Every structure is written in C-alpha cells, then in structure tokens.
Amino acid sequence: MLAAVCAACAATPARIARPGPSVTALPDPCSLVSFGIARRLVPGLSRRDISHDGYPDTGRNRIPGNTQCIWGNGPVTAPGARIILIGLQLFSGDSAATGSYQAHQDVLLTRATGDSPVGALGNEAWVVYYTGDHTAYAKVVFRWGNEVAYIEYSGNRAGATRAPIGKNAATNVALALAQDVFMKQRRAS
C-alpha cells in the first residue's frame, strides 16, 4: 500500500512549479468562517471547538504547526447532524525540502479515491465526496504555499433513516467554504 502511495511521490519532480507564498503563522481557523454562516449551515449549532497540534485551546499554544476548528450540532451519527471542520497545517521546511515542497507532498499523500481537481483554489486542490455510517462527507484540500487547508462538511438528514446529505449539496457547501477560507488567507498574505 505504501509503495502505491509513494509512487505518486516518486513521480513528482523535486521542484514544484508553483511554490506559492510563504506563510509564517496560522490564523485562528474559527475566524475563517463567520458565526452567521456556521449557524446557517449547521442548524441547531451547539458547539465550536478549536485545537492546536491535537490539544484543546488553552490560550498558551497559539503558534501551532496545525490547528483546527469544528462547528457542530451533535455527534456526526445523530439524526440531522451537520459538522464543519476547518483544519490548517503549516510546513516550515528543513534542510531536505522547503515548506512549500513538504506541503505539496502532504497534498499528494492525502489524495483520496474518487477525488477531483479543483481550479482557482490555491496552488493545488482537490475535492472528494464519500459516505459511511449514514453520513456524507465532502472534503476539500488545498495548498497555499507552505500551508495546507482541509475543509470538510458532513452530515445526514433528520428522520429515522438518517440518509446522508446529497453529493451536490455537500460538495457545493465544502467548495464554498474552501473558497471563503482561501480568499481570507490570500488577503492576509
């Protein structure tokens, strides 16, 4: 399995065509989605959680290598559940590779079966829709220089069947959120 994943890495030239800007610090991912938009996309919004490097926000860990914000209205498997996840990861580079190249490699390694490329969203981007356990997931990943953003919109319909939300609806929301995150990132650069 690893050989199949790394085959894509080996096919990638050592220098990427568009390295993009150099990001020096990650913004608060919760600030990239307005409360009004989150409330509209997540009916009955009941929580907003932020974590840095996998730990809850304490106010002391403000310059992380990765950070995420989750807006939700309950467990993802509950009827009518909706969740927005905004994740950001910063690659600072080392003696072997630039941060932009490390971010490029991360985008290659996180590609999913059935994903589709997305134009005009950072230096490289893809979107994928999948379902599991009565839940639909639409995920967009894009690279902006040495930063990678992960945007996911997931949920199911209310009612006894808890059918996954439709592909077009979920994908359109995830793409709109990703575009909004990208534009805010671009303005900050």
Descriptors:
disordered N terminus; Protein Transport Mog1p, Chain A; alpha+beta; 8-stranded antiparallel beta sheet
Any overview of this molecule?
The chain is an alpha+beta fold and 189 residues long. Helix content is 26%, strand content 29%. The chain has one domain (24-188): Protein Transport Mog1p, Chain A (3-Layer(aba) Sandwich), CATH 3.40.1000. It is built from 4 helices and 8 strands, in the order ααββββαββββα. An 8-stranded antiparallel sheet has the order 2-1-3-4-8-7-6-5, sandwiched between helices. A hairpin with a 2-residue loop joins β1 (47-52) and β2.
Cα radius of gyration in angstroms: 17 Å
Number of domains: 1
Assembly state of the chains shown: single chain
Gross CATH architecture: 3-Layer(aba) Sandwich
Strand proportion, as a percent range, falls in 25-35%
Low-pLDDT regions: 1-14
Major beta sheet, strand line-up: 2-1-3-4-8-7-6-5
Tell me, briefly, the overall form.
globular
Write the layout of secondary structure elements.
Elements: H1 2-11, H2 35-41, E1 47-52, E2 55-56, E3 66-72, E4 82-90, H3 99-109, E5 116-117, E6 124-132, E7 135-144, E8 147-155, H4 167-188
Short description:
By secondary structure, the chain is an alpha+beta fold. Helices cover 26% and strands 29% of the residues.
